Structures are given as C-alpha cells and as structure tokens.
Amino acid sequence: MKIAFVIPYFGKFPNYFELWEHSAAYNKDIDFLIFTDTPRNKHNIYKNIHYIYIDFDEIKRRIQEIVGFKPMLTSPYKIVDYKPLYGCIFKDFLSDYSHWGYCDSDVIFGDLKSFLTEDKLNNYDRIYQHGHMCIYKNSDEINVRWKTKHNLVSYNYIEVFKVGGVKMFDERGGMWDIWKENKWSQYLNEMEFADILPIKAEFTTSWNKDPMIFHYDRGHLYEYADGTNKREFAYLHLQKRRMTVENIDKDNFYIKPDVFTKTVDKTIECTDSLGVSYAAQCKLKRILGSLSKGDEMVFHIRVAFRRLGMYIKGENWHIKYKLY
C-alpha cells in the first residue's frame, strides 16, 4: 500500500509551513506531491515531499479536459471544489500509488500510518471526508464517482463547476451526500483528528468544548493535559488560524492557541483578533465575494429548477433538504 497526498498550492505558504514539512517528512511511507508555481526545491530536504512546478492555466486546462466544458475557475481558492477530481487531474502522477488523497497546508501531521492502517486501506473506498484530509482508493471507477448526477440532495458537478463561488463540493456541498446516498464504503471517525473550531480563540473541536493544548514529539501528535501526553491524533487542523512561531525545536514543541512554543508553562493570551474575528472575516469575505458574482443567481435558479423537476416526477419526496 502506498499513499500520495496531492496539494495544488498557489501563493504564499503559511509562516509555519516548515513545521508542516517537518511533520509530513516523519511519515516516510507517504508521498506529498505539491503542485505549485512557487516551488521550494532549494529549501526542500525531505525525500517524500515533491515540489512539481505547474501554473494555474495548466490546472484549468487539465480540468477542462476532464469535465468536458470550460469551468469557472477564476481564482486558486476555487480549486477546493475540484479536490475530488485529483485522481483524474493528476492521474499521470499517481500510477504508482494504491491510494491518493488531499490535505491542507494549515495542518500539523502526527503518525498517520497508525491511523491509516492496512486494514482500513484494504476495506474502505474512502477514509475520512473533510477537505483538510481525505483518502481514496486509486481505481478508475472510484476516481470518477464525483460525476454522479442522480443524487437528490447536493449540487452536482456541472452546477458547481459553472459557478465562480466555492460550493464545498469536496464536502457537504457534494461528495458527502453522493457517497452517503450510494452507500459506498467509507471510514469516518471525527475523533481521530483535531479539527479546531474557528469561532473561538481557544482550541476546541466539535466533540470537545474544553480548551486544548497539543504536543508534537518526533512524528507523534498528542493532546497535552495535566503534565502528560493523553490522546494521540492523526493530525491537527488549524483552520487558517494565524500563528506565531517561536524559536523551537522542530522535533519537539507545544501548540497553544495562536503560537508554536517550546514550553507549555508559558502563558499565552488568546485574542479575538487572532482567533474569532479573523475566521469571521474570512467567511464574510467569501460570502460577499460570492454574492457579488452574477453567476450566483444563475446557479441557485439552476439548482431550484432541477429539484422542482424531480419533485414533479416524485423522485425527491423523501429528501429533507438542508441549507448549506
């Protein structure tokens, strides 16, 4: 079994990206393929992290060739909607891998192989389901499941790829429901990773409301409490949080709200300006940006008419639609 994570990245890397690289490098059996127009080869000393030069126009060309029409892809951030297509977009780079996946740049990895076991990789078509990490079996049939159009809840790929705004097609805007409705095999366990909520300055998750501190120790990531390492995690997702990086040992450090620090005893002041307000500003900016685009109205009309047609035919009477 061999896994490759695919990460297209355009723009400036996070200020703690060296810690991302270092934690990725500890997972020696997993390759990280970073497609970017700003390669870091002169800085890269890790054998399992590969920087591949590609420009944004080439990404768009590859996507158009796969979907069969010109996609609305005016900014690199919109690429998140195309994550489920990576097995097709980058097929020529993935032939040597049994699995491929995607992950974000705002994470710190633990010992992934402790969680991505041979048993899980053998028995599930998909492991996890979030945009910050998701792994698929590398097969021609599984790699095109994003094309499924008969799902009745989510948007389908044609609707999503013809609109400029991000619709989270990699998650609850598409693939979550496509996978669920078709009852394809998947392994889900939200407690194996720490997905930090962006609405609080403290580190909390959807399943843990108590403030948390983390300890990274030579390829392993733990929750740190009462002077000891407690639960071990596959990874920590920081949700684009602004972080300060102190002068730390990259093999052994603590992660507190808004800072990577060498000691857990240091008191860190959690401020809204670094936590809550920044996350809220990012979300508000995306919403306002989407509403300013004329294709948004067309998108929602198109979805509404599809659902109305299904209702007339009686195909979606059992569906309880959700507002995403």
Automatic annotation (TrEMBL):
It comes from the Bacteria. It holds the Pfam family DUF6625. InterPro entries: DUF6625. This is Uncharacterized protein. It comes from Xylanibacter rodentium.
